[in-house]
Amino acid sequence: MISKLLESLYTKVFINIVIENSQTVVYVEVCSKKSVLQNMHKYFDTTTMNSKMYEFIHAYYKESPFCYVSILDKSPLQGAIPTCDVKEMSRYCDINSSEHRCFSKDWAYYTSEYDLEAIKHEYRSAGVDFIFSPFVIMANFFKDKIDNTLSMFVLLEDNYISFSVFDNSKLLYAEYLNMEHHKESDELLMESPLEDDELDGIDLEEIDIDDDSSGFDDFTNIEDLDSGEAIDEFSQEQEIKEIITKEEYSPTDGFNEDYQRFSLIKGALNTFYKDPKYNSKFIESIYIADGVGVTNDLKNYLEEEMFLSVYVRKIDLAVALCDMAKAEI
C-alpha cells in the first residue's frame, strides 16, 4: 500500500541503452502515472560506459527513486529454440553455459551466462534492471503477425540479425547471425594470395602456357584483358601490379551490407530447410524490423532472388526497450 502511494507521488524514469558499432544510444523517458512527461535520445561516441554517460544517467537517478535501466543483449552466443522443455534444449544449444527463459510454453530464448555477467559488470556504476533479448523485442514488435501467419521474422541491428520462423505463434527455427563474422569470412575468401614482395620475383618469360589453355580460367575476372591482344603485351611486372590493384576486394564493391544481410538470411533459411532437427515448411513471406535504416536493395534481393513477399517496418530499438521495461514494471 505504501509502495503504491509512493509511486503515485514520484515520476518513473526509464533509461534504455543500445550499443551500436561505434556509439551507444541512451534513450530516456520520464513518465507520470498517465503520460510521458519527457523523452530524449542521447548519443555517446563509445561502446562502453564512460564518465560522460555515467553523469548523464546519474542526473536522472536524482529525479526519482523509481528509475529503471534496460540494455539490449548483444551476446553473439544467444539465440532462441523451439522448445521450453529442459530435456530437449540440449539438442539446440549448450544449456550448461547459458541462461534461458521461456517466452511461452512452446519456445525459449537463451544467452551466454558469461556475457550476462560482463554486461552487469560493465554497467555496475549505473545498475542494470533488465537485459532484454532481441528475439523478445522482435516477438513483441510483430505480435500481430506472428500469432496468425507462417513467415520469417527478422530484426536488424548494426552487426547482428535475429532470424526466426514462426507458424501461428509457434517458433520453428531461430538463429542469431553475426554480420562481422560474415565480413571477415568474405575478406579471407577474396584476399589475393599474391603480395607485392612475391610479385617482384615473377618472370613472365618463365611461364609455360599449355596449348589446351586450361590455366586461363584464373584470368576470367580481369576486366582489362582483351581477348584479341597477345599475352606478351603484359610482360612488365608493373602492369601486372596495376591489374591486380584494380581487382583488389573492397567490402563495398558487390558485398555491401545489404547484400551481406541477404546472404545471411538466405543461408539461415537453407539451414531451416535442410536440418532434420527442425520441422521445416515452405516460407513465402518475410517481415523485417529495420533498426538500422536499410536501403531498398535488401528488399529487392529478397524479392528477386528468393521470390519472397517482403514487408519492412522501422523500429527504434531504444524505444522498443523502453516499452518492454514499462510492460515489466
Task: Summarize the structure in words.
With 329 residues, the protein is of the alpha/beta class. Among the domains are: 71 residues, Nucleotidyltransferase, domain 5, CATH 3.30.420; 136 residues, no CATH class. Helix content is 34%, strand content 26%. The protein has 12 helices and 13 strands. It has a 5-stranded mixed sheet with strand order 3-2-1-4-8, sandwiched between helices. A 5-stranded mixed sheet has the order 11-10-9-12-13, sandwiched between helices. Strand 9 and strand 10 form a beta hairpin. The longest helix is centred in the last third of the chain and has 18 residues. The radius of gyration is 26 Å and the shape is globular. About 19% of the residues have low confidence.
Map the helices and strands.
Elements: H1 2-9, E1 12-19, E2 24-31, E3 36-44, H2 51-61, E4 66-72, E5 79-81, H3 86-89, E6 98-102, E7 108-112, H4 113-122, E8 130-132, H5 134-141, H6 143-146, E9 150-156, E10 160-167, E11 170-178, H7 179-190, H8 196-199, H9 237-246, H10 257-274, E12 285-290, H11 296-306, E13 309-314, H12 317-328
Helix pairs in contact: 10-11
